[in-house]
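Duplicate of earlier report; Dihydrolipoyl dehydrogenase input re-posted below.
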Amino acid sequence: MSEVQNFDVVVIGAGPAGYHAAIRAAQLGLKTACIDAALGKDGKPALGGTCLRVGCIPSKALLDSSRQFWNMGHLFDQHGISFDKPAIDVKKMVARKDGIVKQFTGGIAALFKANKVSAFYGYGQLQPGNIVKVKQHDGSEVELHGSNVIIAAGSDSIELPFAKFGEHIIDNVGALDLEAVPKRLGVIGAGVIGLELGSVWKRLGSEVTILEGLPNFLAAADAEVSKVAAREFKKQGLDIKLGCKVSGTEVKKDGVHVSYTDDKGAAQEIVVDKLLVAVGRRAATKGLLADGTGVKLNERGQVEVDEHCHTGVDGVWAVGDCVRGPMLAHKGFEEGIAVAELIAGLPGHVNFDTIPWVIYTEPEIAWVGKTEEQLKAEGRAYKAGSFPFAAVGRAVAMAEPAGFVKVLADAETDTILGMHLVGANVSELVHEGVLAMEFKGSADDLARICHAHPSLSEAVHDAAMAVHKRAIHKAN
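Output:
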């Protein structure tokens, strides 16, 4: 074992939370190291975590490719554009995705070099005394001491005991690398991953059946948003079955046999060519902590932290998917930066009340803040204003009139409590709500801000005006 190397900050994990923490710490003049074990398809280190390698970025690449193909057969004729037998080259599409991944993982490596972050490639384990032992890919071991250690280990796909991952039963990684369009695709879980990847392969011609255990579709979202989204997905041919409890799978010559009970308790079976298991993710903390570190894990395997992401052990912090809160890349971004700034003696804070949520389906789904259902459960008096994209000139001109924007405001103070959207490009529009809420803005504030015409953002403007029944382009 070589001599211990000393750093001001040692980060375990180079995913969204980890690489943001490392770069910000280095910017603040702290000697920083970052450890990551991931390898790319070429066998070389690939920084960026699940998000850049097999999550956010590659899935959006496939979503965009499949959207282009779907629109050729389902939307372009409205514009007077016609094609003769559109075709998809799946291998070329996946290669494009891989190129984008390589570009961005390489970009993180370049940012590390530019900011003088020392990268170590291998598996890091926290030892007592803020020592991180790294088993590098070349077989060697190094020990790094950090005055501060930031754990950013990320998360892994949850594997069901009766549906082990393999050639025919896959997780999000496998669903991003299919070499051909499966004739029949089964999906367990109608969450973000299931809906997005199910949409990709449905658009390309697969028969997609999604089995969801909960009785309500997208229970975390506003009920009205969920209802509209479900209606649009049904039009697209996604077969979403709610209240289904999957009990077993068996791979046979004719496909994967999936056994489940439906919402009425009746035994059912479907046969699919590929089965995507998308039932959630768990903190990747197995083997992360040696005995005696003092760092605690909760019953879900997450690192226990306080509101400032501190573990209670002097100089040890944890951020991102391996701690409490939503498993969202941008939540990890903010936590990583906040902790780096706290270490440097600066203010650092993450407002969990204004973290936006987005599902990149067609139509897109996005929200920030409280839903109507949550406000009713809390007994909080509120006012709601909504506006449909069908009344927005830009949306109709784009032939994408589905969906609406809803603004929720406190009945007394008019402070915006939530914004809920379903429709084209709402992943961008939701940030009007985020910004307004961060500055404690009111619905009236938003209603009095000039929005360009014609633009999709006019739906936000009119929804804010509708809170006080003064929307111009709809009956109040």
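Residues 169-279 form a domain with the FAD/NAD(P)-binding domain fold (CATH 3.50.50.60).

Merging into the original ticket.
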